[in-house]
Design goal:
The complex is a heterodimer of chains A (about 550) and B (about 170). By secondary structure, chain A is of the alpha+beta class. Chain A has 18 helices and 21 strands. In chain A, about 35% of the residues lie in helices and about 15% in strands. Chain B is globular, with a radius of gyration of 17 Å. In chain B, strand 1 and strand 2 (about 10) form a beta hairpin. The chains are: A alpha+beta (about 550), B alpha/beta (about 170). The interface of A and B includes residues 22, 274 and 280 of A.
Chain lengths: ~550, ~170
């Protein structure tokens, strides 16, 4: 993985001291809370319902064990012993004290981490496919370019006060999109053109929130040297023309929509004439320098499906299920990608205790060539596990309560913090997730239901990605009561779609039954091997509406 | 009282802002709104002590690109510090449009933005904070030195880190 050089280290250390000064000026009353707000936000420090919340970046989701141990240490020392992994490859601490925040940032800097631009109207943490570098069908490793973009976007003097936040995702996989690329302000797919050169397909204007939109492709191919020049052109157009009169219309998706994709593209291309071939030109030596950090580790020459794996799978049903559900194919024979579900029954999705973080860090060192990934679905990945050690890993995970075999199933819920923590929320989301995971806790039932992406947001800002859930749940406020709307048919990935609202909202007491009704309806009408989303696409809303609302039937 | 920061020093202003309904002074450089420049173009153009124009946050320098040679100052308004359009405008003036006069920031100009403004091409900052000149100058020094390097090219400031990295390798 990437290691800081003297420049990167200086940037992060300077930032810690800068922030320490800003906190001191705030505490001395030299600046107002209003003036302090954008400064703390650009360091990921929010003021939430009960306390400050600190959001720490995990660039493109990559961690080593030393960093994970540090995250555990921070949870234990400065917080209440746990942290929350978010849908943007960040971790949030819910209870830090303002006076400790600079020290926390210094701790992070000691392991080459930071909280820079994890909030505020600036370019946020750059996210990537969690299987980067280890999945078979990949043009190039997206982490290389995500790191290049991370650096370019850090303290960009021109784009620190954009109309609104700005999110970029990169994927290099062919035919699969695990990073919800089309739902980002800018989504980049690494592609090969007809001449065999590698570059970027550029999508702009995707996003969730109160106006969900799938991004539009504005370029089939941007050559590698032009990557930053092209991004800068997009950001410049957005910074000058994005709406600032209404924060709900300030994202680039609205600009693209209102300007029209053709005119927007023309404006970008016009700026690109200025930026291309100049100082932003990305030199091949820099790409090589960064790519070297992501070079494949020295794998051992092994065979797929060793006896040490197959025998245990045959003998142990729970292990076999875990392998079947949570383990993905690795590009290297004899290795595997092991997902750690952070969705055990009854625990807030994405939460992890400090002790569990330490276990994950130790296991990464022991089994996964020191590599851990954080996913936008709020799970972890051990990216480089020998297949003949999967059983040992699974036993160790089980001991720490980390061996839930529910990946991409109904128990694997994405969920925002909701009204339990968040000052924006209309309704609680965590208790709903807990109740649903309890209702469907029988794993055999989950496997019978099959792949089902359920996502819950506590308000229209859609941090829980409900728009792209096969089943989405949105918390709404109805006369001071918490109600929940159901959407069906969303999808985050290569088959991107935005869900459709199915009908009137349900009360907190009714929502879990309603979800069960939707699931049972699907089970009743599906064809053999047909996933929920495919059944929905085949039959549409009608059968679900009928079973949910037609009480006479 | 508004203070003028230029290259880290508090300097006196040789220009006056003239509002749309005020009479023009006999002598001295004046900064007027875009609307006034457009309506009083004839009396303003060729003014001996110079004329400057003040653009609101939604007014792009593109709108005055044909008149730029006539301005000694282009003042860019920041109605609130979170409105970042002026950073792109400053850069546009200095690079694409090749403006050689003074680019000035007016409005909600705060200490924590000095560095980004300087890098984007602002020459002069009008700061309304009620602090002594020495303190403001010290704040400028701190603000500019807080972050040593720069990951991006900009109109001014440290060379882009990528160039430093590979220059070091080449040397």
């Amino acid at each position: 993985m990437y290691r800081y050089d003297e420049f990167d280290r200086a940037m992060v250390l300077d930032r810690v001291e800068q922030f320490r000064g800003q906190v001191a000026r705030r505490m001395a009353g030299e600046i107002t809370e209003e003036q302090f707000r954008p400064l703390r936000l650009q360091n990921g420090l929010y003021l939430q319902l009960h306390a400050y919340m600190l959001r720490v970046a995990i660039p493109y989701g990559q961690l080593n064990s030393r960093q994970m141990h540090k995250l555990a240490h921070i949870a234990r020392t400065y917080d209440k012993g746990y942290g929350h992994f978010t849908t943007r490859q960040n971790i949030q601490y819910n209870w830090p004290r303002l006076s400790d925040t600079a020290d926390i940032l210094a701790e992070l800097a000691s392991v080459e981490m930071h909280a820079i631009q994890t909030s505020g109207n600036c370019i946020r943490n750059v996210t990537a496919d969690q299987y980067a570098g280890v999945t078979a069908d990949e043009v190039e490793d997206p982490r290389i370019y995500a790191e290049i973009i991370r650096q370019w976007s850090t303290f960009h003097p021109e784009f620190t006060f954009l109309p609104r936040k700005f999110k970029i995702a990169v994927s290099g996989a062919v035919g699969a999109d695990r990073a919800a690329v089309r739902f980002h302000d800018i989504g980049l797919f690494i592609v090969k053109n007809d001449a065999g050169e590698v570059g970027f397909e550029v999508w702009v204007g995707g996003g969730l929130g109160r106006t969900p939109m799938i991004g539009k492709k504005i370029r089939d191919f941007v050559a590698k040297p032009d990557l930053l020049a092209y991004l800068e052109a997009i950001l410049r157009v957005y910074n000058m023309l994005g709406r600032r009169d209404n924060m709900y219309k300030a994202r680039i998706k609205i600009l693209v929509h209102e300007t029209g994709v053709e005119e927007f593209t023309r404006l970008v291309e016009d700026e690109f004439k200025d930026t291309q071939g100049g100082e932003l030109d990305l030199p091949a030596e820099e790409i090589e320098r960064i790519a070297a950090y992501f070079a494949p580790p020295s794998y051992e020459a092994l065979e797929d499906d060793p006896q040490a794996l197959t025998a245990h799978r045959f003998e142990n049903k729970a292990f076999n299920n875990w392998v079947r559900i949570n383990v993905a194919q690795h590009k290297q024979p004899g290795y595997a990608i092991a997902n750690i579900s952070l969705k055990p029954v009854g625990v807030p999705p994405g939460d992890m205790t400090a002790d569990q973080m330490d276990v994950a860090a130790d296991l990464a060192e022991k089994y996964s060539l020191d590599s851990i990934r954080v996913t936008h679905e709020q799970n972890l990945v051990l990216s480089d596990v020998r297949q003949d050690q999967l059983f040992d890993l699974w036993q160790d995970l089980a001991e720490a309560g980390l061996a839930d075999a529910n990946l991409d199933h109904i128990g694997d819920i994405i969920c925002c913090p909701g009204l339990d923590y968040c000052s924006l929320a209309n309704a609680r989301s965590i208790p709903i997730a807990e109740q649903i995971s309890r209702r469907f806790s029988d794993l055999d039932r989950q496997y019978d239901i099959g792949e089902l992406r359920l996502k819950i947001s506590g308000c229209i800002n859609a941090c829980g990605h409900h728009h792209v859930g096969h089943i989405g749940i949105l918390g709404v406020d109805r006369k001071d009561q918490e109600y929940y709307q159901i959407t069906l048919g969303g999808a985050p990935g290569e088959d991107a779609a935005i869900g459709t609202k199915i009908g009137a909202a349900f009360s907190a007491a009714e929502i879990v039954d309603a979800i069960e009704t939707v699931v049972n309806t699907y089970v009743g009408i599906r064809r053999p091997e047909e996933r929920f989303i495919d059944t929905y696409r085949r039959v549409g809303d009608a059968p679900f509406k009928e079973s949910l609302y037609d009480k006479a039937a | 009282m508004t203070k003028l920061l230029k290259d880290g020093k508090v300097v006196s202003d040789t220009w006056v802002h003239v509002s749309d309904d005020a009479d023009l002074p006999e002598t001295g450089g004046v900064i007027v709104s875009l609307a006034r420049w457009q309506s009083d173009h004839n009396s303003l153009a060729g003014r001996k002590d110079g004329v400057g124009v003040r653009l609101e946050a939604g007014q792009s320098p593109e709108e005055i690109k044909d008149d730029l040679a006539q301005f000694g100052v282009v003042a860019l308004e920041l109605p609130k510090f979170g409105d970042g359009r002026a950073y792109s405008y400053a850069r546009m003036l200095k690079t694409r449009l090749g403006f050689e006069g003074e680019v000035r920031a007016v409005g909600d100009v705060l200490r924590d933005q000095f560095r980004a403004m300087y890098r984007c091409g602002f020459d002069v900052l009008e700061v309304s904070a009620d602090v002594p000149a020495e303190k403001l100058e010290a704040a400028w020094q701190d603000a500019l030195g807080e972050i040593r390097y720069a990951y991006q090219p900009a109109y001014r400031g440290p060379q882009m880190v990528i160039r430093r990295r590979h220059a070091a390798v080449a040397a």
